[in-house]
Design brief:
The structure is a homodimer. With about 210 residues, chain A is α/β, with parallel strands linked by helices. Chain A is about 40% helix and about 10% strand. Chain A is built from seven helices and six strands. A four-stranded parallel sheet of chain A has the order 4-3-5-6. Chain A has a two-stranded antiparallel ribbon with strand order 1-2. In chain A, strand 3, helix 4 and strand 4 form a beta-alpha-beta unit. In chain A, helix 1 crosses helix 2. Chains A and B meet through helix 1, helix 2, helix 3, strand 2 and helix 4 of A and helix 1, helix 2, helix 3, strand 2 and helix 4 of B.
């Protein structure tokens, strides 16, 4: 056996590559590579080419910056949707999460991140200029800020509020409160306090 | 949005491919693909080509069937190793596990699986003929059967014992007992019983 713990450089390289994925350790990387190795060459090509093709051919919607196969994404080009309301989200995964609720019929705007000095992400790295432009040129009436309720999310939301308020657009944010199915005794004080301050008419919850 | 929950077919395809890996669900597959998408094209090519190259160029040792970059693997071609003892294992991962113990200085023989009627694996699917041949042509004095102590592993071990016993080779198997660091109260009865039957001289444990 050579100095490495792997009997083959090719194997070692494949394990090292798959271990670059977040949350995949060396042990499970080896398991995954051996699983790939048991497949036919055609299957391995299909596997690997999916990522190359995605990277080389992916487009982002010219309007909302969502990932898309066409110049305008399916949401932006859907005439049945309300084009006066924008839901501002951090990334395309959040677009998918909001879409999965079937509760939003407006359009999106993907920031491409949130402000995070720790990670070196400043407002200029995000799609904020284009958001400001859209509000004016598309005649947007309301923007819903749908960011994580973390420190970075709140910072970004506050920054957006200050930047966009002068345009006169109505700015809202998603409700904070007790998650449906949660027990009160396990709710944190901040959230519980907020949910009392922001209490809603009882007959609105069944609508 | 189209009928799919994904905004892009390319994205959907990449997620579907990575979700073919064992233990990777749809949600984490999306997370992994978005991580890949943030990398440069060169990095994605490096990632994907590692698996293609492994599949297209991988070799197996002509003697022991371990994965190898050369015709004979590093272990089989290492003259310092004892070429009269063979450790019989299920797969290349088990070679790596035994190597990591630094307790074995002989050679290996990789079966390429274990007998499992449930999975349609019969003795003829395994590298057993070549094992029998090696015992004769290489003048092997001992084979150590190092298979999992599961029903399939035991079945395979018993099959090997019956096939190889006529050659007159000494056949041993790895010790079963209480794992080092385990508490007796949590040991199962079979293992504990076995460890009493197979008790060893006390002064041998520190050797």
């Amino acid at each position: 056996m050579n100095d490495s713990e792997y009997p083959s450089k090719l194997l070692e390289n494949a394990v090292a590559q798959i271990a670059t994925l977040p949350g995949v350790g060396r042990k499970s990387a080896l398991r995954l590579v051996l699983n790939l190795l048991r497949r036919s060459e055609a299957e391995v090509l299909q596997f690997s080419n999916a990522f190359i093709q995605l990277k080389q051919e992916v487009k982002y919607c010219a309007k909302c910056h969502n990932i898309s196969d066409t110049e305008l994404c399916n949401i932006c080009s859907d005439s049945r949707r309300d084009n006066t309301v924008l839901c501002v989200v951090e990334n395309i995964r959040d677009v998918m999460s909001v879409e999965a609720t079937h509760q939003f019929k407006g359009l999106y705007h993907v920031l491409g991140g949130i402000i995070s000095p720790m990670d070196g992400v400043s407002p200029s790295d995000l799609n904020i200029d284009s958001l400001q432009q859209r509000i004016v040129t598309e005649g947007i009436k309301e923007i819903i800020i749908a960011l994580s309720t973390t420190m970075e999310g709140d910072t970004t939301a506050y920054y957006l509020y200050r930047r966009l308020n002068p345009t006169g657009v109505k700015i809202t944010t998603i409700a904070r409160g007790i998650a449906i199915g949660d027990e009160l005794q396990y709710a944190d004080e901040l959230t519980l306090g907020r949910s009392i301050l922001d209490r809603i008419p009882f007959d609105s919850i069944n609508k």
